[in-house]
Fold this protein.
Amino acid sequence: MRVAPGSTPLDTVAAHFAGRRDALLERWREAADADPQLATASVLSRAQFLDQIPQVLDAFEQRLRARDSSDHAEAAAGERDGAAGHGRHRWQQGYQQREVMREWRHLQVVLVDELEQFTADHPQADQADLARARRALAELCGEGVCESADQYARLQRAEAAARVRDLEGALAELNALGTRRAEAWREAAHDLRGTLGVVKNATAVLNHEAATPDTRAHSLALLQRSVGTMHALLNDLIDLARLEAGHERRTVEPFDAARVLAELCEAMRPFAEGRGLGLLATGPADLPVEGDGVKTYRVAQNLIANAVKYTERGGIAVSWEADPDEPEARWVLVVQDTGPGLKKVAASPLERALRAATDEAQEVGEQAAAEGEPSVEAEPPPLLPSRSAAPPASDGGEGIGLAIVKRLCELLDASIELHTEQGKGTTFRVIFPRSYPDGRPAPRCG
């Protein structure tokens, strides 16, 4: 082994490996392809397969040429960085850790064979120099295995920690959902008990022999209203229970959304007028769509009933149209009221807003009483991500109707948006698909 002036004895070995670089990498790829335990390598391009190994070999050759400890340390750091990066790349490509170790094994065999061939071709080479080259090669492959394994361990810990966080978040959300559901059912039971108390008292008056005709008439009217309230609430609870249990499915068929909504508005108008409210219905005379007409009717019915119930002055506006942005793909239902609205807070999903509906309503009712009556005039507000409207504190309210709306929208692949402004009202905007792929039913809602 001849050494050029000003070079180290291992410069020749480094130059030999540099000159044989492409051939060595090709032999490594062939060895990996021939290994039946390396399934992932075969789907990678050549550049993906080699990854940072050429840089690792650069650092190895730099180690062979090192003239002092500083050069040696720099080369070793380069080997470690390249090996760690290679391990990270293999993780991202879906390698198992065993596969990475086997690749390093094949690379080590290729490099050792090449060094032995160099030794055979240069019998005059100094054995001490060749021993240092073998040691450098062993350190290279050892560092590669250790760094790749350590990188895998770090990534596995990070992934495990992320999974734990995801599971903790999912568990927290599940617990919160359970709490919200329990609260909703508690409030519903409270309303039922209160109404039942009215029924009991009215019945007692009717059974009292000393009751006057006027008292009996008043008690009978009160009894009838209370029974109607209980009937409506029980129906809502049954609907919500079926939705949450996954017993509802959508039935897709053509229907005229304009006709369905116009008929609904006509049916709801007497209830609005009975509370001194106007109900304005606007939209095209025909709006042919594909979907579940019955469940669409229920969505609109719950929103309009909610608006009528919690609006004291002004009125309700219901409109429908093809979505201006995607008229062939979607259509829109808008229900706007001039009710008390909610306090101005950050927008949040409807389900999260339902959780605080009663507390929010009490605050609104108290503040509305302190500030005076809300304005009758209400301009159509811009639409924001959804928040649930809440009933006034005087009416109580479990948010069952809005919970049903949310579940029905999920079942119909519809999205719901809301803008609410205190003292000016609330606007719900529901965006429905105009058709469903192949008319297939949705998965069960639950």
